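Re: [ENG-882] Designed sequences occasionally contain unexpected residues at chain ends

Forwarding the minimal case from QA. Structure tokens:
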């Protein structure tokens, strides 16, 4: 599973989680979604990599496996942009859903829509910005 497919699936999952949390008026769905992405960001056990290793064995495709990437030697270069995107996504969902729910009620829906669009087009503005800042 590529990062593009993972973004599409995670955006659709976020929309479903948001609908379920409204339908059942329960924040457990949002909390579980955020915990999964926070766990993935902290441990760097990326779900697409885990799925491809299960699917293909130890010889995962080169596009998915972590290849030889030449980066600058600075603090930000040691972190991946995709990993920081997951941290940023969890931070903004938590901020808009739990800290300022009345003022930023639309923001989790916007994040889900942007994840779906970036999954379809393979262009993620957040990852592009994070790479411009210095993440690999």
């Amino acid at each position: 599973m590529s990062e593009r497919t993972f973004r599409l699936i995670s955006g659709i999952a976020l929309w479903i989680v948001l609908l379920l949390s409204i339908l059942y008026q329960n924040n457990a769905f949002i909390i579980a979604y955020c915990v999964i992405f926070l766990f993935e960001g902290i441990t760097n056990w990326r779900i697409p990599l885990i799925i491809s290793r299960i699917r293909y064995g130890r010889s995962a495709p080169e596009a998915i496996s972590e290849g030889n990437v030449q980066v600058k030697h600075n603090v930000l270069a040691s972190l991946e942009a995709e990993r920081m995107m997951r941290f940023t996504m969890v931070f903004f969902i938590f901020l808009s859903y739990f800290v300022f729910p009345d003022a930023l009620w639309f923001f989790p829906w916007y994040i889900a829509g942007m994840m779906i669009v970036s999954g379809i087009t393979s262009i993620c503005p957040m990852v592009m910005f994070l790479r411009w800042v210095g993440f690999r």
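QA comment: On inspection the terminal residues look reasonable. Residues 3-133 form one domain. Proposing we downgrade this to a documentation issue.
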